[in-house]
Design a protein that fits this description.
The protein is α/β, with parallel strands linked by helices and about 270 residues long. The protein has a single domain, classed as P-loop containing nucleotide triphosphate hydrolases (Rossmann fold). Helices cover about 35% and strands about 20% of the residues. It has 9 helices and 10 strands. Strands 6-7-8-3-9-10 form a 6-stranded mixed β-sheet, sandwiched between helices. It has a 4-stranded antiparallel β-sheet with strand order 2-1-4-5, covered by helices on one side. The radius of gyration is 18 Å and the shape is globular.
């Protein structure tokens, strides 16, 4: 397994880029008619979405619009009530699918870091390499240390997460998610719990991932960041895709009054 580079001069070489072998020319992720209900509340209703290889898709929308739930459904943390989810052509929403094997193909970073508090930074990063992908311990440690060095926290490898700043913890969480070279990376409001002064260092890492060809679906409230890094903007409104398109189209020429009203909040 090759090791990604975070060097500024080589951002385009960030990480091994997966091919579409087994699904040539097809999207990495396809959602068809996704519906999710909690009690009497319809959270997602008829969501259709294709995400191409190396594409960055930003999900925007008000709190409660379904962004985080959609990401949790993609990673099978929530079972959908109707519809289908395809990961490189495989129907991962089939009840017979192996949950662990499917989740091993997807990297996820949450807003609250979710690092294991009882494990050191190094163990947090190399755990999946050793336990899920069965990489020899010395190789897993070497890869983890290299990644930690590239984000500037190699000196924290023996520390526990609570000794790190929020920005450092989130960068470690991102590195942990990409260490296994996932086919798809899901980012769920990864800056919402950070001090404003720490947001930039995390967003810079995401830019490096984009430059390296990662396929990313991210829920974000950082409109300027979404506009600068995403290939496609998807506006969710009350569990439905109200509108989707290029950043220029959505931010400068929204076709839906609901989209325009939502974006206007960020211009005040």
């Amino acid at each position: 397994m090759s090791v990604p580079s975070l060097e500024p001069a080589a951002e385009s070489q960030f990480g091994p880029v997966r091919s579409s072998e087994g699904n040539p020319g097809g999207p990495v992720l396809s959602l068809r008619g996704i519906r999710k209900v909690f009690g009497n509340h319809v959270v997602l209703s008829g969501v259709d979405l294709d995400v191409q290889e190396h594409e960055v898709v930003a999900l925007i929308g008000a709190s409660g619009s379904g962004k985080s739930t959609l990401l949790r459904c993609i990673n099978l943390l929530e079972r959908i009530d109707d519809g289908q989810i395809f990961l490189k052509g495989e129907d991962t929403s089939d009840p017979r699918v192996d949950l662990d094997k499917t989740r091993a193909r997807i990297g996820v970073v949450f807003q609250s870091y979710n690092l294991f508090p009882h494990l050191t930074v190094l163990r947090n990063v190399d755990l999946a390499l050793r336990e899920v992908h069965k990489m020899p311990k010395d190789q897993a440690e070497a890869r983890a240390m290299d990644l930690l060095d590239r984000i500037g926290v190699a000196d924290k490898a023996g520390m526990y997460p609570d000794r790190l700043s929020g920005g450092q913890q989130q960068r470690v969480a991102i590195v942990r998610a990409i260490a296994t070279d996932p086919e798809l990376l899901l980012l769920d409001e990864i800056t919402s719990a950070l001090d404003p002064n720490l947001v930039g260092e995390v967003l810079d890492l995401v830019r490096a991932l984009k430059s390296g060809g990662s396929t990313i679906v991210m829920a974000t409230h950082e409109m300027d960041f979404a506009r600068s890094v995403a290939d496609t903007i998807v506006f969710l409104n009350q569990g439905r895709i109200e509108e989707s398109g290029s950043p220029q189209q959505i931010f400068e020429h929204p076709s839906s009054p609901a989209t325009a009203a939502f974006l206007e909040r960020f211009r005040r």
